[in-house]
Structure formats: C-alpha cells, structure tokens
Amino acid sequence: MEGNVLLALGLTLFAGLATGVGALIAFFTSRTNKKFLSVALGFSAGVMIYVSLIEIFVKAKDALVAAHGETQGYWLTVIGFFGGIVFIALIDRFIPQKNNPHEVKTVEDVHAAESQSPSVDENKLMKMGMFTALAIAIHNFPEGIATFMSALQDPSVGIAIAIAVAIHNIPEGIAVAIPIFFATGNRKKAFKLSFLSGLAEPVGAFVAYLILMPFLTDTMFGIVFSAVAGIMVFISLDELLPAAKKYDETHLSIYGLVAGMAVMALSLLLLA
Predict the structure, then answer these.
(1) Distance of alpha carbon 219 from alpha carbon 221, whole angstroms
(2) For the whole prediction, is pTM greater than 0.85?
(3) CB within 8 A of 131, min separation 6: which ones?
C-alpha cells in the first residue's frame, strides 16, 4: 500500500507540473501546433470518459454493492457519480467567465505581447493572469484527488488518468503564462505562476491522503470513486472537448477522442 501511495502522489505531481510545460511551449516555440493540441485534448477526453464509465464507475458500484446490497449499492453509485458532477460544476460556476482558464491561447499571442502597444492596460492583464492561475489551481485541486484515488486503487488506471490530466494541463499553462507575460514582459515570472498553479494537483492528492485515507471503508471508497468518475466525465465534456474543437480545423478532436478510448480499452484488456 505504501508503494501505491508514493506512486499516486508522484503521478499527481507529474500531472500538475504539466502547466509549466505549457508555459515553456508558449515561450520557446515559434507557432502553435493546433492539430497536435486538438488531437491531444480529444485523446485525453477519450481516455477519461472511457476509464470513468467502463472502469471507475464499475469498481465503485462493486464496492458499494458488496457493502450495501444490489439495489442500495447501485443507487449510492449513481448518487456519487452525479454528486461529483455537481461538485465540479459548482466550482466552474463560481469562477468568472472572463477568467475562464480554458479560453484558447496560442504561442502567437506571446509574439504579439513582445510588440504590444503602450495603450495596453497592464494592470488589467496582470489581474486576469492571476485570476486565471487561481481558477486553474481551484480546478486542479479535485483533479488531484481524482488522480490520487484512481492510482491508489489501480496504478494502471492512475497512470492513464495522470497522462490525460497532464495533456489537459498544457493549454492551461499557456492560458496563465500569456496574460502575465503581456502585463510584465517577464518570461520567468509568467513561467513561475503557471508552474505554481499546477501544484494544486499534488496538494489535492495530499489532502486526500490525510483526510480520506484513514476512513477508506468500502462505502467511502465506492462513493469517492463514483464521484471521481463524475468529475472526470464533466471535465471531458465541459473543458477538454470544447477546447479541442476550438483548436480543430476538421474532425481531429473526434479522431483523438476515439483513439483515446481505443488505447485505454486495449491497455485495460492487456493488463486484465
């Protein structure tokens, strides 16, 4: 169990630090590879949706049925699933739309910042960047819990989710870095804040370890795991797929989605 805990914490750290990768991509590439981002985000959504509905939901149901019987266990699983959706939707609801961390940003925006007009309101841009970083940190907190709990129960599932979350965090890192760079002209500061916003992911995992682990009965596990499935499905439908479609020029996001599902299905079959 101790080995699984360390792996789970390590995976959440890996996923969270991908926001810094997004900032590096923004600063050290000459153009946005929109096709790659569209496929990657669609792939991430496919992995999350498939593993949530086929693997995580089923394992949550098995645990709750074992503890409470077929009917009550199934009801608790469904309640937990939609409870997770409501939880992450409420987080989204209370973040102002203008600071939406999933607003598509591109590398070209960085180059525009380097030749910005003096009329640009730097204070406004800095505030926007800071709020975006905060919004991403708030989003990443439950994602950290979800990644941690998944990896703790099944490391192979946890690895898949961590990779999917990491892919999803790359454009978020770009979204933090660009307005801060516009406001300050300081790449180091923009990178630092982008990097720090991702650390909410391992913080969420650490909180799960301290608070949930001591009470991890079959019932607690089943409810948390079903909520994780709901969180992952909501993130995929509300964040990943819309972002993938914004970068998309054809049907690449859907091809990525199907590929993600297929790769996840194949990996689960091979590891069964």
Answers:
(1) 5
(2) no
(3) 96, 99
**69 Ramachandran zone, left/alpha/beta (phi>0; psi -120 to 50):** left
**Contacts (Cβ under 8 Å, ≥6 apart) of 94:** none
pLDDT confidence of residue 251 = 84
> For tokens 């819990």, what's the residue?
145
3-state helix, strand, coil in the chain (%, to 5): 85, 0, 15
Q: Which candidate, 92, 93, 81, 90, places its Cα nearest to that of 228?
A: 81
Distance CA 129, CA 122 (A): 10
User: CA-CA distance, 221 to 233, in Å (whole number)?
Assistant: 18
Q: What one-letter code names the amino acid at 266? A: L
CA distance 99 to 208: 27
At 201 the three-state DSSP class reads: helix
Find the Cα–Cα–Cα–Cα dihedral 45, 205, 197, 34, rounded to 10°: -20
Say yes or no to pLDDT of 120 above 50: no
Beta strands in the chain (DSSP E): none
Q: What does each C-alpha distance from 134 to 128, 194, 228 come to in angstroms?
A: 10, 10, 22
Taking the C-alpha atoms of residue 204 and residue 220, their distance in angstroms, rounded to an integer, is: 17
Which domain does 165 fall in, by range?
2-271
What is the Cα–Cα distance from 122 to 77, expressed in whole angstroms? 48
pLDDT tens profile 136-171:
777 788 888 888 888 887 888 888 888 888 887 887
Could you tell me the two tokens for 59?
A: 């394992």
* Tokens at 1, concatenated: 């169990």
Query: Residue 1 in contact with residue 153, Cβ under 8 Å?
Result: no
Q: How many domains does the chain have?
A: 1
Q: Please state, in angstroms and rounded to a whole number, the distance separating the CA atoms of residues 43 and 176.
A: 23
